[in-house]
Amino acid sequence: xxxxxxxxxx
Amino acid sequence: xxxxxxxxxxxxxxxxxxxxxxxxxxxxxxxxxxxxxxxxxxxxxxxxxxxxxxxxxxxxxxxxxxxxxxxxxxxxxxxxxxxxxxxxxxxxxxxxxxxxxxxxxxxxxxxxxxxxxxxxxxxxxxxxxxxxxxxxxxxxxxxxxxxxxxxxxxxxxxxxxxxxxxxxxxxxxxxxxxxxxxxxxxxxxxxxxxxxxxxxxxxxxxxxxxxxxxx
Lengths: 10, 215
Prior knowledge:
The structure holds two protein chains of two kinds. Chain A is mostly helical. The radius of gyration of chain A is 6 Å and the shape is elongated. Chain A is about 60% helix and about 0% strand. Chain B has one domain. Chain B has nine helices and no strands. In chain B, helix 2 (about 35-45) packs antiparallel against helix 3 (about 60-80) and helix 7 runs antiparallel to helix 8 (about 180-195). The interface of A and B includes residues 2, 3, 5, 8 and 9 of A.
């Protein structure tokens, strides 16, 4: 999902 | 995970290690801005609130805990350690960093991916991280002698940001639906803030002279 993608970065 | 992202995380990790090395072994924080370190502690605390809600990977969790723990302990050392705190350039480190926080919070309330507590805090942490280096850059400019470890610390932080930009470009072209304007714009602003420092760092390295920033 879209929301998840950015959150896998630190 | 691509090579730019991994290299970015590793330079970030090294920057923290360089700083901890300076504090632990030399027992000095001369040239390091407590204001910037406090902002980083706030940045990581507000960004990694998702530690409690979302599991991504073991790597992700461990790195988050490292950045949280190290940033908070650096602030503690600079404020409370009986030897380290004496080397803090208090009179030079006068940037009013709390003034940066309100505009970042307002911006996060206005521009976010979703109007929820976690998303607003996440956007706030990105905006604040973009400007968190400013007190450190101002302090560097005021300090006559920039020691090697301090110079390397800022260089590694800048390299970390530049590698993240490459990581976004790579992901944009290799992943579907990978578009994150908030991260990109604040990340690019942040990287540009280092450009001036990079220029003088490489000049001093090329000419083999001690790093000094113009007043």
